[in-house]
Amino acid sequence: MAAIALYEPMLVEETEQVAEYEGKDAAQVVADAVRRYLAMYRQRRIVAETEAWYALPAEERRSYAGRFVAVLGGQVVDSDSDRLALYFRVRESSGRQPILITEGGDQPIPVYHIRSPRLA
Predict the structure, then answer these.
(1) Domain-embedded: residue 60
(2) Band of residue 111 on the pLDDT scale cut at 50, 70, 90
(3) Is 65 exposed, middle or buried (0-12, 13-18, 19+ CB in 10 A)?
(4) How many domains does the chain fold into?
(5) I need a surface site. Which of 59, 93, 105, 114 has the fewest CB within 10 A?
């Protein structure tokens, strides 16, 4: 595995200051920051793939009714009636790339209403 170096002196200095303040190793601070960035990246990709799926014509989505679909790069790359089999197959072929796996069919995008109690 290759090492990744941080070459911006200001970032190095600030990372070291944060690490000292939090009682952590600077490498751990960087690793935590990268993990958070990657999580946000995966979330953005899944949102984009979801939008691409629902942007497909209803007729095309309807052709996958009763199946699960894997969407990557705005395209359906695979489908299966078994969600787990589909997951393992696309994971094998695409690694850890964020890929949307959702139910096929022409249903509209779900809308969720989140309510919280109001404090008086």
Answers:
(1) yes
(2) confident
(3) exposed
(4) 1
(5) 114
